[in-house]
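Lecture 7 notes: from sequence to structure.

We start with a single chain of 713 residues. Read the sequence below before looking at the structure.
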Amino acid sequence: MRTVPDRSKRSSKNPYVACNLLIAVAAVLIAVVSVAALKQHQLDYIFESPWTGFDTILPHTAWAAFKVWTFWSVAAAILGGIALRVEPRLGLLDATIAGFTGVWIFAYLGGNALGPIGLFRSSTIWALLAVGCVWLWRAPPRIERRRISSGHKLVLLTGVLTMPGLLLVQLGSPVPPYMDIFATPAAAQRIVTFGRYLPFDNDPYGYWNPSSQLPGLELFYALLALGSRSLAVLADTAAIVPMAGLLILTTYRLGKTIAGDTVGGMATLFLCATILFRVLPYMHGRSVSFVLVGAGLAFILDERRNTARLTLGALALATAVASHAIIGTLGMAVASFAVMTGGGVNALAGVGLMAGASLVALPTIHVGLQIPVYYPLLPLEQVLGVALIAVAARRLNASAVTDRLRWLRWGFTVLAVAALLWHPYPLLLGNHPLRFPLLVYGGGLGLGLMLLMDRRPSRALLGPVTFALLLGMAVEYVSNRWHVMLTDPGVRVAMYNWFHKVGDWYPYILVFPTAYLAAWLSRTVSRRAAMLVVLAFLFFPWRDRLDPSLGPAGQTADPNYHQHSISEAWAYQMETGKRGHWGNTRDRRWAQSPAELELAEVLRGEVAAGRITPATHVVHLSAFVSLYQDVLLFSVYTGINDDPYLTNHVFNPSDAGSRLRPIEEVHARLAERPPYVVIHNEPSVQLAPEALHGYEEIFNRDGVRLLREASVR
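Now the structure, written as tokens:
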């Protein structure tokens, strides 16, 4: 009789198990020491800040999260299943990314096709999902399960380090926790309220010019709200955690495409050295669009090119342009470089692929430049773009990313390495070495290492990474130098925006060469030692100690613009989640008083009664414009056009093209007899008695008055 060995005893004496346990203990000690090293005000965020109003807001945010997560997951499962059914070679990970980003892509395409005719509705969306579900049930895809790789484990580690804090921020924030980001949820709510998407009349907020609109993101948040039957602003913030998870997945996928599984996993960890997990809860296009850029570049650059990946990648990049024109365009430029440097037929097909993506993104240009066209020209442009993408993708199918510009690429890489390690003028004008020292210097060393290892089988996709960095440097220089030469204030601000947004682009691109350096160290020195070094750099709050610009001890750099440690991120997330963000308003969570929220209910009642239509503008007299004061945000909660007239308002270039006006101009506007007038917090204007003659007061509470013109029935 053969004796069966006792595997439990063997595993308990396994030196690898003991070593892994030691590494885990060391990692916990690094985290504890890092938290203890925080400055006093950061420690207060964790241990002293009260849970102000968290119990009252939790039912709202938790219910919205359940509905939005359920809808997005169901829709993603159906779209991902369809993608896997059409192309079984995608694999589970790519199908998952295709499903979740596919919901976003559908919102952009479907909103332009169905929105102007009133069919972008909850019933239409669920009917289409039902059709897709039945089709999958009759012909289910085959799912292959694969073993968990080292890169997958790093992805899970990144999730463990980041998701709890982000979940706390999400559950504590019914509205996005930052200034100047309300235009997008207001535009999404307008679609939900009126059941119609009007591309050239979808800016109820009124604070910015048309070029600041983000049609791809507005339609996506509207889709989440329609599918989950939520307010758009709640659907916006309820998507924080799944959006962060999708950012991690697409970053891993792009890193894997560039240099393999371990680099992909390390890249997700180095996201913690960017500001993306800090700014992503604002849910603005400049941060969330990296999800689409990462997915698009990962699919297009993948050496296992096929029609499905190329098509999905091109559509993702087009939707990224519609969600944030600057970040999306930078991503499109990198993809164009990759697909059009192959020469011959491949170069021609690459031109077709990018031309098709540009056509899909073209409605964004119409909206931003206010070039109105009649329906259905915009969806026809997109249909033509999708067809061109499909044809070009078939021609590029199974063709590898080529290396025809190898020697030229090496020279440019040396230039990029010099810029990152020595940054001579005029390169890196935005003070990036001080803002992101780990990524700038780690990325410079990693890029140099990629050049030294540029041979099979160690070769990484050096060309696209180098091009992405040099493109950012060129854009930074041109926008900084040329914006002062422009006379139109709106165009000048738009040009200078490129300079600022490159500050978001650099750190994202630099996570990949930095991850390459860390992966090389783990292979050549010690995997466990490399992990401990990486965690120490990411956890310990060392950046402020090297920054002479902060002045007296105890100060910290603004985490919205500077690299900060994981321990600092935890402190900031605890502060926002526990107390709420809007400290100078009437409510730290909603940024609105009960009376201001009640006004939104009254206005929605006017919509239901048919007295307010998409064409209605509400004249809004206000004492404030700063969003850290008590500002009335009825457009965010109703989608009704807000025309603000403000006390002590002084024009600045960022106002060009907006509806913000000095309160002294309201007399002429009232003479036109607008249908509704809101007076908030007694603005400093003396109205003649006849100015409001014929208006009836239908709401008056706690400093908020709503008047309706008598002829409105």
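The beta strands are 617-622, 641-646, 661-662, 676-680, 695-701, 704-709. Keep this in mind for problem set 3.
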